[in-house]
């Protein structure tokens, strides 16, 4: 077991974990933050995307011990976050989700796009979204939602 | 799909890490960002007994220009390179390559050193850096040594690193303003591993690499000669002959897409 | 529409309105609750020992060290009297075979369940799996469906005399099938995996308070799963409750019974603790490589003027090793044989269709069920005929589509198209894609050396499988009258229970819209409950594009009954006659005043002393049902059109433009309709270009990670242009037709036709999905 100290959604957390425990399983099974979803566990689908020190990472292929000393933000930790509030509303209005399984990871990735690439056009948004799989929507609603937030943030 | 058990040791100094490699029971692996090793461990395709974590080791994430050399630490992430952390013409080339590696959330943790040490034939850096040329910097029990990128990768997932050595960085040439670079990756989805790679860097002399093979990426001598002679394009048909001459064991389709990648990389270099 | 409608001044939220989804918030907050999000105390995690080979006998299993009481095999289940999954068909000649939950003696596909390992964590359970040893005598595997029908092939089931599960003939006027112009082609649609982003998931415990087994499963069909659990485990119906909570996509994969859904609950009963199994992606890609895989030899016969005469085909469907509950292993082959004609008129039909067993996972009814394959085969044959005749493919289709004046139209195989204007859908998509502009562009050529092509794909989809069709096949689940339970709550709202299951379709919103249409109440006052056998009416579940037709119809009919009861109470409170009342804006309106639903509800629930003496004691809580009458299915249809660019050097295909003209009858919620079509279309693009579950000659799966199995992504399809025709179905409430699957049906045909149009100067034709660069290059090279 390895001791682990980190901040999750602003809360200080200390835990003793098996080194093989993934960050995703840590936030889900140990912290019961079940909004972080596992879709492939090999880093392709993006459902498990969380922020580590403000940057999106794959929590399924990041061991919890590698998150020692970091600040993690899961989908449950964005209540006071303006870009996320805008994205949630835009996803709702643009029918950017169906089954909802990819949605938390998609939102975290989308937040990265609108904050890191404030001028992204449709092609760029689609390119950046290649790391997040959605089996339901065909991406049209997701792309439109992100573009609408980019536009609002430019105004 | 959960990793098999392993021990985890967090190192503070390189010396400690090298010593840990030497004294480990069973298989010890160095973990950088873990973005290549993580999936393989989850699939239990890799089952190291000990994971040596370098994330606390100082001095591995620098980018320094010293004369005609750029020294890049092994732990520099793809994302930093994508965002332009490496200066000059070399940096612009590397920026383009980095932006096509996997996805941003992987690039935020994946490292250039990890990628080259992992030596997946379909990964970008082994081919891209071979085209650039320069040295790999290696730490071992006898201190630091250098190996040229030429010959560093010896096969799929195999390099010239010794069992008790750690890849700590790269010394890459600072390309002049007149240098030309082109990189062409054949894949069907942005971020996926390559089906074929063509990498062309024309600095002091042309270097042309055929990558994403079943083995290590290799330089295409005939293509380099052609470019050295001042020709600014290579047709797909010629590229096929040039690659085939080096006997890569491709079937017709693989030969074709590698030739197209090479031809288009040349095209990009002169665009 | 009905006598209710929405009151003046209120925002309409009924049929036809773009109402935003009620279910979105929990998903956006990360608060959805999927099976893997449910934590029960003392839960053990399961990992499964699976077959490493495609075909073997004399299976012997040695438990891993340290697994006492934590390791279970078929022997243990048999000792407890557990029955295998037994699926038969009424079709004469159908060969039956039981699907063992855990393998008994013989192994029939890689990934087949062999034993269950339990531990406190999934990782520890996987450690046990790694320590289990299994021994067997390997047998030659039956991997390819064409080889499987050869007399020399090894047999998947020892007691069968060949591997043909069912050999069906669908002949009509077969002796006149020939005509002066004929084209013959073979086509193959390869196997793929369904890949909902949430895989299968089961959590089970014996709940002592409820005194029954409670099974949480990511299922589209909780009631059917309950039936299966009772049948296999020998439990009474009142001893089982199945809950399908939030489900992360289904697409047909989750409308069949998985062995895990039986043996995980059984194991939970043995260890007297909750047990969960969460399918991981590798398990999905290996064990759920179970969709599509059809082979066609097609001959299309036509008059020199292009009039279609006869259709001849020999169809083989690779149905895998077993028959799945409840839909069996012959749904695809019989549907393919019966409806290969698509939306076109034929005067003769000579089609043979065989379902064939192989050493691969059992086939499941993935979105579109057989129709992506038949659309691919027929539509490519039509383009080949167009090239043969020197006709525009669009024009040749127009000549042969069933015209609107012939509706309702009886097909050559006895099916009935209820309504629609098929040529208009084609006309509109052809206008939108602008065929003339494509032809002009082709003459100019592309600066980048790519080749441009345009392609069409037309289809019809029988939605909401009718009772008689399912009964004819003798399926284990035959849909009858769908029911809804509607309760007027004490505050004047509605709580609606339905037996279908919502896993992305937006039914918590669209089914509520039905009630809003009837009563004009605010949608916030309507809740749709589903996915729990304890609280919902019996239903065969969500599949076959049936939920809006059936459950929507049931809600409408039930609201009609409930509305009368509400009006009776309202009339008493208004001191007027029942016949003088109507319902509008959630109020009972009389000649001289009105009374709100809330008031009626208050009186019924809280002040029953104010009720009329002769009030109907059934009150304000009603269950009723619906089935199309007569017992027929509404047919949706569409034409898809695409422009593609083919890179002849690499073989890569890029979709430049894509349009869809479709008719799903009356549109309940245009936003949701668009979402269903767009999502389906991208899945169709996956079938067309990317997705393939490859096997080697030994039957080993080669596509077991997303690195080896390419999913369609955000860059693979430009914004589709959607166009809607609305021809209401005469069979259903409001004229709705099913819609969930259609988007996925014609993209393989449409894209392949566009690719072949682009390659026509080479004389090359692709004939196999996915249209990979390697396959395109092979076509180009062969013709160069």
3D architecture notes:
- The complex is a heterotrimer of chains A (155), B (271) and C (784).
- Chain A has 155 residues and is an alpha+beta fold.
- Chain A has 2 domains: 2-75, Ubiquitin-like (UB roll) (Roll); 82-154, [2Fe-2S]-binding domain (DNA polymerase, domain 1).
- Chain A has helices at residues 23-30, 82-93, 103-116, 122-128, 140-154, and strands at 2-8, 11-17, 49-52, 55-58, 71-73.
- In chain A, strand 1 (2-8) and strand 2 (11-17) form a beta hairpin.
- In chain A, helix 2 packs across helix 3, helix 2 crosses helix 5 and helix 3 packs parallel to helix 5.
- Chain B has 271 residues and is of the alpha+beta class.
- Chain B has 3 domains: 7-53, Uridine Diphospho-n-acetylenolpyruvylglucosamine Reductase, domain 2 (2-Layer Sandwich); 63-173, 2-Layer Sandwich (Uridine Diphospho-n-acetylenolpyruvylglucosamine Reductase, domain 3); 180-269, Enolase-like, domain 1.
- Chain B has 10 helices and 14 strands.
- Chain B has a 5-stranded antiparallel β-sheet.
- In chain B, helix 9 crosses helix 10.
- The model of chain B has no long low-confidence stretch (mean pLDDT 96).
- By secondary structure, chain C is of the alpha+beta class.
- Among the domains of chain C are: 24-32 and 481-626, 2-Layer Sandwich (Aldehyde Oxidoreductase, domain 4), CATH 3.30.365; 365-463 and 632-783, Aldehyde oxidase/xanthine dehydrogenase, molybdopterin binding domain (Aldehyde Oxidoreductase, domain 4).
- Chain C is 27% helix and 24% strand.
- Chains in contact: A-B, A-C, B-C.
- Chain A binds chain B through residues 2, 18-20, 22, 25, 41-43, 46, 49, 52, 55-58, 60-63, 65-66, 68, 109, 112, 116, 127-128, 130-132, and chain B through 1-8, 10, 31, 34-35, 38-39, 41-43, 51, 53, 55, 79, 102-106, 108-109, 189-191.
């Amino acid at each position: 077991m390895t001791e682990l100290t980190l901040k999750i959604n602003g809360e200080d957390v200390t835990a003793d974990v098996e080194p093989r425990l993934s960050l995703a399983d840590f936030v889900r099974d140990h912290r019961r933050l079940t909004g972080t979803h596992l879709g492939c566990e090999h880093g392709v689908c993006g459902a498990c995307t969380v922020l580590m020190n403000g940057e999106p990472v794959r929590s399924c292929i990041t061991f919890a011990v590698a998150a020692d000393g970091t600040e993690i933000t899961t989908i449950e930790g964005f209540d006071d976050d303006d870009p996320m509030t805008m994205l949630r509303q835009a996803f709702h209005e643009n029918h950017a989700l169906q089954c909802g399984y990819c949605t938390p990871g998609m939102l975290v990735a989308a937040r990265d796009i609108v904050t890191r690439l404030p001028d992204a056009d449709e092609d760029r948004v689609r390119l950046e979204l290649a790391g997040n799989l959605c089996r339901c929507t065909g991406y049209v609603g997701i792309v439109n939602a992100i573009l609408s937030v980019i536009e609002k943030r430019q105004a | 799909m959960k990793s098999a058990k392993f021990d985890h040791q967090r190192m503070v100094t390189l010396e400690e890490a090298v010593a840990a490699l030497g004294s480990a029971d069973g298989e010890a692996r160095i973990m950088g960002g873990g973005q290549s090793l993580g999936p393989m461990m989850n699939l239990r395709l890799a089952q190291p007994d000990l994971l040596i974590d370098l994330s606390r080791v100082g001095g591995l994430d620098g980018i320094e220009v010293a004369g005609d050399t750029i020294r890049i630490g092994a732990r520099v992430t793809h994302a930093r390179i994508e965002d332009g952390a490496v200066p000059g013409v070399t940096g612009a080339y590397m920026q383009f390559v980095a932006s096509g590696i996997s996805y941003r959330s992987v690039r935020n943790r994946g490292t250039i050193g990890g990628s080259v040490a992992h030596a997946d034939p379909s990964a970008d850096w082994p081919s891209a850096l071979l085209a650039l040329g320069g040295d790999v910097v290696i730490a071992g029990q006898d201190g630091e040594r250098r190996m040229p990128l030429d010959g560093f990768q010896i096969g799929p997932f195999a390099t010239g690193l010794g069992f008790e050595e750690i890849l700590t960085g790269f010394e890459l040439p600072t390309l002049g303003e007149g240098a030309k670079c082109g990189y062409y990756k054949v894949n069907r989805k942005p971020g996926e591993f390559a089906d074929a790679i063509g990498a062309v860097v024309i600095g002091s002399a042309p270097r042309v690499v055929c990558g994403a093979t079943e083995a290590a990426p290799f330089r295409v001598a005939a293509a380099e000669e052609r470019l050295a002679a001042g020709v600014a394009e290579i047709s797909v048909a010629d590229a096929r002959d040039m690659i085939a001459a080096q006997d890569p064991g491709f079937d017709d389709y693989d030969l074709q897409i590698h030739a197209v990648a090479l031809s288009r990389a040349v095209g990009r270099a002169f665009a | 529409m009905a006598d209710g409608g929405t009151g003046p001044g209120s925002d309409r939220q009924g049929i036809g309105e773009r109402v935003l989804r009620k279910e979105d918030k929990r998903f956006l907050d990360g608060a959805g609750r999927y099976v893997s999000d449910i934590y029960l105390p003392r839960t053990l995690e399961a990992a499964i020992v699976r077959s490493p080979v495609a075909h073997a006998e004399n299976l012997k299993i040695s438990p891993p060290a340290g697994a006492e009481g934590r390791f279970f095999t078929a022997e243990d289940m048999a000792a407890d009297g557990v029955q295998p999954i037994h699926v038969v068909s009424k079709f004469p000649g159908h060969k039956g075979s039981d699907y063992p939950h855990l393998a008994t003696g013989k192994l029939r596909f890689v990934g087949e369940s062999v034993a269950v390992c339990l531990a406190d964590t999934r990782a520890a359970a996987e450690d046990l799996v790694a320590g289990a040893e299994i021994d067997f005598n390997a047998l030659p595997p039956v991997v390819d469906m064409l080889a499987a029908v050869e007399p020399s092939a090894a047999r998947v089931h020892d007691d069968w005399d060949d591997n043909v599960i069912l050999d069906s003939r669908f002949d009509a006027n077969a002796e006149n099938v020939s005509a002066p112009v004929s084209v013959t082609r073979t086509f193959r649609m390869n196997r793929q995996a369904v890949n909902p982003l949430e895989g299968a998931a089961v959590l089970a415990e014996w709940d002592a308070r409820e005194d029954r087994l409670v099974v949480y499963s990511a299922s589209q069909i909780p009631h059917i799963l309950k039936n299966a659990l009772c049948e296999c485990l020998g439990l009474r119906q009142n001893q089982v409750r199945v809950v399908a909570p939030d489900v992360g996509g289904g697409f047909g994969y989750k409308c069949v019974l998985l062995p895990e859904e039986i043996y995980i609950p059984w194991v939970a009963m043995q260890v007297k603790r909750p047990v969960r199994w969460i399918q991981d992606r590798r398990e999905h890609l290996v064990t759920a490589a179970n969709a599509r895989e059809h082979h066609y030899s097609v001959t299309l016969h036509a008059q020199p003027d292009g009039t279609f005469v006869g259709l001849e085909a020999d169809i083989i469907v690779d149905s895998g090793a077993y028959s799945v509950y409840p839909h069996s292993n012959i749904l695809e082959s019989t549907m393919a044989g019966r409806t290969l004609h698509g939306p076109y008129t034929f005067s003769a039909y000579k089609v043979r269709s065989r379902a064939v067993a192989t050493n691969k996972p059992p086939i499941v009814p993935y979105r579109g069920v057989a129709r992506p394959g038949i659309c691919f085969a027929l539509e490519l044959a039509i383009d080949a005929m167009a090239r043969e005749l020197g006709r525009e493919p669009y024009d040749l289709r127009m000549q042969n589509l069933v015209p609107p004046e012939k509706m309702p139209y009886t097909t050559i195989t006895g099916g009935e198209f209820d309504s629609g204007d098929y040529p208009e859908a084609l006309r509109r998509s052809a206008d939108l894609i602008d065929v003339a502009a494509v032809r002009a562009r082709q003459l100019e050529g592309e600066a980048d050396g790519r080749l441009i092509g345009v392609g069409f794909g037309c289809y019809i989809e029988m939605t909401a499988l009718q009772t008689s069709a399912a009964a004819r096949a003798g399926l284990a689940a035959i849909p009858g009258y769908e029911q809804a339970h509607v309760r007027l709550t004490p505050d004047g709202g509605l709580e609606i229970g339905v037996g279908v299951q919502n896993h992305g379709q937006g039914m918590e919103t669209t089914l509520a819209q039905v009630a809003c249409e009837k009563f004009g109440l605010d949608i916030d006052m309507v809740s749709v409950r589903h996915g729990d056998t304890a609280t919902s009416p019996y239903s065969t579940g969500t599949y076959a594009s049936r939920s809006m037709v059936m459950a929507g119809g049931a809600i409408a009919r039930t609201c009609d009954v409930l509305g009368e009861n509400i009006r009776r109470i309202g009339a008493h409170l208004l001191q007027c006659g029942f016949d003088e009342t109507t319902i509008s804006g959630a109020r009972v309106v009389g000649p001289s005043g009105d009374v709100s639903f809330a008031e009626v509800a208050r009186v019924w629930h809280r002040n029953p002393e104010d009720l009329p003496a002769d009030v109907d004691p059934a009150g304000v809580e009603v269950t009723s049902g619906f089935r199309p009458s007569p017992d027929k299915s509404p047919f949706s249809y569409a034409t898809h059109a695409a422009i593609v660019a083919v890179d002849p050097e690499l073989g890569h295909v890029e979709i430049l433009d894509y349009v869809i003209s479709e008719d799903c009858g009356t549109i309940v919620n245009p936003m949701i309709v668009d979402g269903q079509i767009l999502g389906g279309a991208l899945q169709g693009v996956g079938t067309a270009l990317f997705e393939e579950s490859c096997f080697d000659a030994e039957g080993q799966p080669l596509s077991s990670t997303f690195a080896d199995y390419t999913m369609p992504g955000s860059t693979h399809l430009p914004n589709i242009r959607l166009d809607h025709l609305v021809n209401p179905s005469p069979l259903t409430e409001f004229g709705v037709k099913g819609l969930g699957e259609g988007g996925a049906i014609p993209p393989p045909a449409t894209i392949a036709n566009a690719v072949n149009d682009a390659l026509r100067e080479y004389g090359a034709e692709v004939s196999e999905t996915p249209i990979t660069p390697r396959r395109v290059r092979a076509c180009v090279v062969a013709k160069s």
